[in-house]
Specification:
The chain is an alpha+beta fold. 40% of the residues lie in helices and 21% in strands. Helix 3 crosses helix 5 and helix 24 runs parallel beside helix 26. Bound molecules: arginine and zinc ion.
């Protein structure tokens, strides 16, 4: 049990800082076992501070304090108070210089927050509150200072020494040591501080900004990874150009650096001028990385780069405002990926993710608004809600304003708030001021949690030629918010005529008929009815085109209407959505009744889509992929774990059998043309549809399809095809599967990111012995609880992407997960807490499983010592 119950921090308690820091000079004597950090701060009382007793309380954790001096005078132990989280100085002048010296131990830092060792290098991660593990400081984002950082280290072990800003001095010292001094001209909050020391190599390039300034671009990696940086560099240059063109944002330093690190809690970090990345989002070669990896790199490189304006130049006032930078930056990276890739496919992928993770989060015990009201541990709030729903909230504003006004509004935001630490309220006010629109009701999207449910009903009056669409919104209660007020929801709607063409949407009272196509209506009341006039026959409504708002839709479509939309809707997203709804319906019927049967019309529609020669292949692959088991579970009041698995696997087998000839034809027609791997939307789409065809074929394999699979595994010059085949062989099992896994491991055992894939394939296998296999892999020499990517690939994948085995009725999966969380919590609370999230929605399951999950949650809460991170999630889950 956590001895004193950790207390929550509330947004309503925000107070401006009592002191400001203008300048920071840091001096690091780097050594993995024992690093000394000397800090000189220029402090002054904040004229805007509202209260305080005059004392200065600095954050600091796990620091060994050696010296404190004010204006050159050492303080004695009676002149300050130290506790495990802070250093308090009583009676300080209004303006003074503070020197502290502390010792820290990077090699013992397994939490990977602050300064830590990863392999042979030293690196930092300071967001959100890691800087306080490096030195005593006002570690809060509304304290922005100019930094000069001096790094001293052994020259042979750490030939490369990096920090934020520009390099201003470099020299050799005696005893084989050397020094590098970096200066960052831009004031920044402490969470954007970074340093790197290591034996690294870089690929270099150059970018000339729109106004003609030359920027050196460098990507640093360990020497053996130098051949895996080209895609990241290309992505970076594309992102830099795009931000100039789309948002008018130029880069502002002479150098931009990226470093790939193999031990990293999150995806990457936008430190000023020195982005530090999980190497998964940098390293790619066609034979080591899949199309999904290439995609991920392109968007994460862009995301972190975009933060330079949305996050760094303009930062957050406090951590409740996290979505100010994350929601906006995700919106920006999504738009970037849509522009450089295929917009339709990108939208589908983003909505899939939102529905799978954010909707689930919003319906569970950790549900919180985009701008949370309180937290115990801020690291628990780097969530799908803050990131993905936050991006949707920005997208809704962009769509309500339209492209021109939205651009004016973002220009205004960048101009008005450059150099400041601000709030989501400041962002919305810029939207209003630039456009003249009133967004007062819209602001509820930041404050109210929960996914609104829109129930729509349509009826057609042939005599009057009127189609009435009534819309009712309801948002279920979430923790701490029993009642919700109505949201301001943009609705993008179309009406299809008998021929499948868009009709003009003329509302009663319109003076003239609008052109045919999509019309954006705005729902503000709890209930509203829209009357469309001038319609000669009953239209088929295409609702929520392009997914204009993060809501759930209830509309009683007939199967024939869905098939019609799937075939004709001018909106690609809604064609996909109609197909998903159809499949979901069919699957849920099969869950309820295994003998339900599948109509020929379903296979016909599937075949027709599959053979559509003109269609965008990537889009097609999305249309023809069944909803995941997890998503199906979210559609049930009481999850039937085994029923869902049986139904989905059964339907896949039926598709594979019934459409065998067509699938084989598609597989053959989409063979690579021998020019080697290229990462273009067309080629990615071709591989996607081909591997999907093989997937269906392998659900009822015969000698021929097994042969194809084996061939693809052996021949594949690219990891996308090799992984697809490996997964199918491994799930097929037998000597064949074991041999493929064995051969893959032998080939790639030295490429850590590929070994992660090898673990993940086994962890996600629906085979009945999956848990035993995962247990065995725990003692594999390559498994380590200290590498987050490895933990995610085995334990994370098993608990998130293997519903049927993780939720096995005997509780083995739950016990396994709880054991790992208890082992991991003392080492790395952030990762432990993330893993726990797959067990907190226990209320949706049957009694037996509920009891089993609760037992494990209680066992975790009973542990001797528990991090705030895990305590918060486990206690909220049981509330
Ligand atoms: N700001 C980083 C990003 O680009 C994420 C940092 C997450 N840090 C954390 N402690 N959870 O999204
Ligand atoms: Zn971010």
């Amino acid at each position: 049990m956590y001895r004193d119950t950790p207390h929550a921090i509330h947004l309503k308690d925000y107070q401006p800082p009592e002191f400001l820091i203008d300048r920071v000079e840091l001096h690091f004597d780097l050594d993995p076992d024992r690093t000394s950090v000397e800090s000189r701060l220029e402090l002054r009382r904040n004229p805007a501070a509202t209260r305080g007793d005059g004392s200065l309380r600095l954050h600091g954790e796990q620091l060994e304090l050696e010296t404190v001096e004010i204006d050159g005078n050492p303080l004695t132990g009676s002149e300050y108070v130290l506790d495990p989280e802070s250093l308090t100085l009583h009676r300080v002048p209004d303006r003074f210089s503070l020197l502290t010296r502390v010792r820290i131990h990077p090699s013992l830092n397994t939490a990977l927050e602050g300064l830590y060792q990863s392999g042979d290098m030293l690196c930092t991660q300071c967001e959100a509150e890691g800087f306080r593990r490096i030195t005593y400081f006002l570690d809060r984002p509304d304290v922005m200072a100019r930094y000069t950082t001096t790094l001293v280290a052994d020259r042979a072990r750490f030939p490369v020494l990096l920090s934020n800003g520009n390099l201003i001095e470099e020299c050799r010292l005696e005893d084989g040591r050397h020094l590098a001094r970096w200066e960052d001209p831009f004031p920044k909050p402490s969470y954007l501080f970074a340093l790197i020391a290591g034996d690294l190599r870089a690929i270099e390039d150059r970018f000339t900004t729109a106004s003609g300034r030359a920027v050196d671009l460098k990507i640093f990696v360990e020497p053996h990874n130098l051949d895996k940086c080209d895609h990241a560099m290309r992505s970076l240059k594309k992102a830099m150009r795009w931000d100039e063109e789309r948002f008018g944002r130029e880069y502002d330093l002479d150098v931009f650096m990226i470093v790939a690190v193999s031990h990293f809690n999150m995806g990457a970090m936008e430190n000023k001028g020195l982005n530090v990345f999980n190497d998964k989002y940098v390293l790619a070669r066609p034979d080591t990385a899949t199309d999904a990896d290439f995609d991920g790199i392109e968007s994460v490189i862009a995301h972190e780069y975009f933060h330079n304006w949305t996050g760094n130049r303009i930062t957050c006032r406090d951590w409740f405002q996290l979505s100010l930078k994350e929601g906006f930056t995700v919106y920006r990276d999504q738009e970037f990926s849509a522009d450089v890739g295929s917009r339709g496919v990108k939208r589908i992928a983003d909505v899939r993710l939102l529905r799978a993770h954010q909707f689930a989060e919003d319906a569970g015990p950790m549900a919180h608004p985009v701008r949370p009201d309180s937290y115990i541990e801020i690291n628990n709030f780097y969530t799908a809600t803050v990131y993905q729903k936050g991006a949707e909230v920005v997208r809704m504003q962009a769509n309500l304003l339209g492209p021109d006004a939205f651009r004016q509004a973002t220009d205004l935001y960048f101009e008005r708030h450059d150099g400041q630490a601000v709030t989501t309220e400041d962002f919305v006010r810029c939207m209003e001021d630039a456009s003249g629109r009133d967004l007062s009701q819209f602001r509820r999207w930041y404050a109210q949690a929960g996914t609104p449910e829109l129930t729509m009903q349509g009826d057609y009056d042939p005599a009057a030629g009127v189609y009435r669409l009534s819309v009712r919104q309801f948002t279920p209660p979430t923790p701490g918010q029993p009642e919700k007020r109505p949201f301001h929801v943009p609705l993008a709607i179309g009406l299809l005529g008998d021929d499948g063409e868009d009709l003009p949407l003329r509302l009663e009272g319109d003076s003239q008929a609008p052109a045919a196509g999509t019309r954006v209506l705005e729902l503000k009341a709890e209930e509203e009815t829209f009357r469309f006039v001038g319609l000669d026959s009953r239209p088929v409504p295409s609702l929520l085109r392009g997914f204009p708002a993060p809501v759930k839709l209830r509309f009683d479509y007939g199967d024939r209407d869905l098939l019609f939309l799937m075939a004709h809707d001018s909106d690609g997203f809604n064609r996909w959505d109609a197909a998903q709804t159809l499949m979901q319906r069919l699957l849920l019927a099969l869950v309820r009744d295994p003998d339900h049967g599948v109509l020929d019309a379903f296979f016909d529609a599937f075949r027709e889509a599959l053979l559509d020669a003109e269609g965008d292949r990537a889009l097609l692959a999305e249309v023809l992929t069944l909803p995941s088991e997890g998503y199906l579970a979210d559609q049930m009041d009481l999850v039937d774990v085994d029923g869902i698995h049986r139904a989905r696997a059964g339907l896949e087998r039926a598709i594979g059998g019934r459409l065998r000839a067509d699938l084989l034809a598609v597989y053959r027609a989409n063979a690579a043309e021998g020019c080697g791997y290229v990462f273009t939307p067309e080629e990615v789409g071709r591989r996607a549809i081909r591997n999907l065809a093989l997937h269906y074929l392998m659900q009822s394999p015969d000698d021929e399809t097994l042969g194809l699979c084996r061939e693809q595994f052996a021949a594949g010059d690219n990891m996308t095809d090799v992984m697809a085949a490996l997964r199918l062989l491994a799930d097929h099992g037998g000597a064949e599967g074991a041999e493929a896994l064995e051969c893959f491991y032998r080939r790639w055992s030295r490429e850590s990111l590929v070994v992660d894939k090898w673990f993940a394939v086994q962890a996600s296998s629906p085979r009945e012995d999956a848990l035993e296999q995962v247990q065995r892999l725990l003692s594999h020499p390559d498994f380590s609880l200290r590498n987050p990517n490895r933990v995610r690939s085995l334990v994370g994948v098993f608990s998130v992407a293997n519903q049927v085995r993780f939720h096995a009725a005997d509780g083995g999966g739950y016990r396994f997960l709880a054991d790992r969380i208890l082992e991991l919590d003392p080492l790395n609370p952030q990762i432990a807490s993330r893993l726990l999230k797959s067990m907190i929605r226990w209320r949706r399951f049957d009694r037996t499983r509920q009891a089993l999950m609760c037992d494990e949650l209680r066992r975790i809460l009973d542990a001797e010592e528990l991090s705030k991170d895990v305590y918060e999630v486990a206690s909220k889950a049981l509330e």
